[in-house]
Amino acid sequence: MGVGLDIGSKTVKIVELSQGKNEFILKASGIAGHKGRPPEQTQTEKELTPLAETIRKLYKEVRISSKEVSIALPESQVFIRTVKFPLLTDSEIASAIKWEAEQYIPIPISEAIVQHQIIERKEDITSSQTTVLLIAVSKQIVEKYVKVVEMAGLNLIVVETELMSMVRSLAPSDQTVLILDFGAKSTDIAIAKEGRLVFSRSVLTAGEAFTRAIAQGLGIEEIRAEEYKKAYGLSESLLEGKVKEALQPTVRLVSDEIKKAIHFYQSEERGSTPSSLILAGGTAGMPEIASVLTKFLNIEVVIGNPFSKVKCDPQVVKSLSDYASYYSVAVGLAMREE
Ligand SMILES: Nc1ncnc2c1ncn2[C@@H]1O[C@H](COP(=O)(O)OP(=O)(O)OP(=O)(O)O)[C@@H](O)[C@H]1O
Ligand SMILES: [Mg+2]
């Protein structure tokens, strides 16, 4: 088992798991805020130093035993789409993608890393087809993440995308669900069918936008607005609902994107309606967010617990409980089998 490192735009999270008989066991976990730029926004190596130092310190503090880590790239930097092929073998699909990828992805092939996963094979009297998830990312961005991990003194062994990791730690294996990574800069929306990622989208509206909305709506400093957001959130009764009022349009914008995602999945992919929405990321901790989204979307909303598939010391569970939703990507990364 491995170590998962989630490099967010505001916070870094790290988790180490080991494999028990039929379960994962939590070995170590930790979180640290950082003021550095996210790697995709840097031009020089020097700009990566503050982030690399935060990772190095966190790694030491939480006493991780292995230097081999896996990371996930932000969904906003990754291009993902499903492509339909006739019923072909795995190797036929791989070579078809190699030759045809150019027509599906927006980045020149020579500058991209392209991967794929077969998500479904269907065969009936009228039609037969294979649905493939195509994942592409620019080499330049991957190199920046590789660099920052190296600068922190660690060895990078696996790179995937945030929602791929999150689906591993949060998605049930017997249903179609929506998963939301509600971070600082971006809100990432996934649809997972029977534990597999089948749809993803990233929206650049999240925690920071909520804080700005409160600052503007109430005419206060952002530091203050951040405190109000965490203390009052979408609660009606506190501060006469003023914070809620300021937040409402931004929440609606996010919820409209979720609706669009559901609609797209149902109409384009003929997928079934997700049975629930699982919330993760720091912004999942905003008071009343689950009940407001339930109202907007008319769907059951729950706060995800990425440790539900992991055995932990009860004492540790208690100390993690407020922060559990932060760890969904890191836990999912650490659950990888490689
Ligand atoms: N109790 C809370 N109520 C509302 N917002 C919160 C709460 N706790 C944390 N947040 C917000 O969560 C965000 C940080 O979440 P997270 O650590 O998931 O982001 P990140 O992974 O660094 O960002 P991203 O994934 O967008 O790059 C911040 O915007 C912070 O204000
Ligand atoms: Mg994040």
Automatic annotation (TrEMBL):
UniProt-listed CDD domains: ASKHA_NBD_PilM
Gene3D superfamilies, A to Z: 3.30.1490.300, 3.30.420.40
Protein's UniProt name: SHS2 domain-containing protein
